Amino acid sequence: MRPPTRLPPMSDASARARALGHDDPDLAESVFNEIEARRLKAHPGGQRAILNSKARFRTLAAGRRWGKTKVAAHEIVRRAMEPNQMIWWIANTYKNVSRGYREVVNQLPPSLLAKPAPAYTSTTKILQLKNGTMIEFYSGGSPDSLAGEGVDFVVVDEAALIPDNVWQQLIRPTLMDTGGEAFIISTPRGHNWFWQMWKLGQENKAGYESWRFPQTANPYIPQAETDAAEEELPTIIFKQEIMAEFLAAGASIFGLGLQRDGSVVDEIVEPLGNVFVGIDLAKKQDFTVITADREIDGMPCYFERFQDLDWPTQQRRIGYAIEELENTPGVESVTALVDSTGLGDVVYDNLIAAGVDVTPIQFTNQSKEQMARLLAADMEHGRARILSDMQEEFESYEFKLTPGGRYQFEAASGHDDMVAAKMLSHWGRVHEGGASINIVSIERDDPHAEAALRDGILVPVPTPEPDPLLEIMNRPGAWDGSADGFASRGGRGFFGG
Q1: Which residues of 90-103 are buried (b: 16+ CB within 10 A; e: fewer)?
Q2: Which of 36, 173, 229, 276 has its CA 20 to 30 A from that of 256?
Q3: Are 108 and 29 in the same domain?
């Protein structure tokens, strides 16, 4: 087994010249100048420490937009300066593979390539250098392509989203006969193999080094952006995705929101203005739940829960509930969102046929994650409220992580119908919006009219009512074809002549 070699820092031109082995000093200098123009300018938020590390296994946990991909691409290019290397970039999805490929191509001088780089859209992404080095890009979602190769250096991108067995059975063995190195990067996602590799670095095990940097360590990210993310995201997600904290699964995503004063109310209020209804249909032993919120303040204004009813009866109950809301004085519009998964699609069709304004929502892991994130964040920041009858179910609504690092939401209590209905009504309130049309009038030659309209300061005016027919007929010119009366096509009076 040959020992791995580490290329000196890229600012050391003479060392790089020896490593490249160029016979032509002028060509070598030209290449080095090209590298210097393209290479990463490391920011002081931790990137320099990583570049100076000599550890064989380096693990970087960092928040979104910290610069993980740029650092990894820099290390790929630096290693590619050595001749006859086999280098891999592996990511969890094809999209992330393409992102890494673009960054490597941006940092790699074209003059080093034996043939032009494949297009970004190419399904086969392999860079062949003149010095015999190969850089290959693969998706961890296609593990069969990772077998049987000896690798000198590998970047594992979004490692926390790659299953344990892909690292343990496929990637790690490729480094054994070459003594190859690995740079493992990701945003944290629970306690998995990525977390274990990070822990080995924290425990100072020989050959391992690791770091954890929040997004805020990147000096080029405005603080206002981080503040906005903290305002918009649930605390659990913010800590993980932005602050790069390793969080154990099993906690309720709504936990902090439930602790906020005013997020849980005991009584429903009168429906008013635009109202949004969430309908979760019963499956097996579950309940059908109808819940509604006012758009103006997010207060619950309707709640009903029932079980063991056939589909036609459930549809009638849903129709009665919506009709009751529509007929309430002060209600301007009612929009319903219904879980259309499975038989719910039939119920949706029947509600549409009955003239109900309803939007179908397919419940998937992805849609549940989006709706849970939105509701949890808005509860934490006082923008959403639930009934106290729902609290126990919300407390047991946990997030778990799949082997691939994906979120999976489910109720530990076995029932999530109230949570699902509330997520639907809140999603509608935020994303659907109530019907609101105002007619405004402006003077054609008024230079300030457009700006005034844009700023929303024009006062809506009612549509004018037409003059009564009798009044029109009694006008002086009504029967002689004049401009202010009725005129025929020929310019004559009402009856012609």
Answers
A1: bbbeeebbbbbbeb
A2: 276
A3: yes
Specify the number of domains making up the chain. 3
* 290 located within any domain: yes
Question: Would 144 be classed as within a structural domain?
Answer: yes
Domain of residue 338 covers 255-431
- Please tell me the least confidently modeled range out of 6-20, 133-147, 249-263, 364-378: 6-20
Q: Give the residue from 211, 229, 247 where a domain finishes.
A: 229
How far CA 250 is from CA of 197, 208, 247, 263, 478, in Å, comes to 22, 29, 9, 22, 80
Lowest mean pLDDT among 88-92, 161-165, 209-213, 333-337: 161-165
- Measured between alpha carbons, how far is 380 from 252 in angstroms, rounded to an integer? 13
- Do residues 316 and 446 touch, judged by C-beta distance below 8 A? no
In this structure, are strands 264-265 and 386-387 parallel, antiparallel, or unpaired? parallel
Give yes or no for a contact between 375 and 232, defined as CB atoms under 8 angstroms apart.
no
Q: Are residues 413 and 490 in the same domain?
A: no
Q: Which stretch of 125-134, 253-262, 367-376, 380-389 has the lowest confidence by average pLDDT? A: 253-262
- Percent helix, strand and coil across the chain, each rounded to 5? 35, 20, 45
Boundary (domain end) residue, out of 383, 409, 431: 431
Check whether residue 413 and residue 459 sit in a common domain. no
What's the length of the chain? Answer: 497
Q: Pick from 240, 187, 194, 201: which is nearest to 61 by CA?
A: 187
Q: Is 157 exposed, middle or buried (0-12, 13-18, 19+ CB in 10 A)?
A: buried
Contacts of residues 247-250 at CB distance under 8 Å and 24 or more positions apart, as own/partner, are 247/188, 247/190, 248/190, 248/191, 249/190, 249/191, 249/398, 249/399, 249/400, 249/401, 250/398, 250/399, 250/400
Rounded Cα–Cα distance for residues 24 and 494 (Å) = 100
Q: Which pLDDT value is given to residue 10? A: 44
DSSP letters along 36-58, please? HHHS----TTTHHHHHT---SEE
In this structure, are residues 77 and 131 in contact, taking their beta carbons and an 8 Å threshold?
no
Q: What residues are paired with 33 via a beta bridge?
A: none
pTM of the model: 0.61
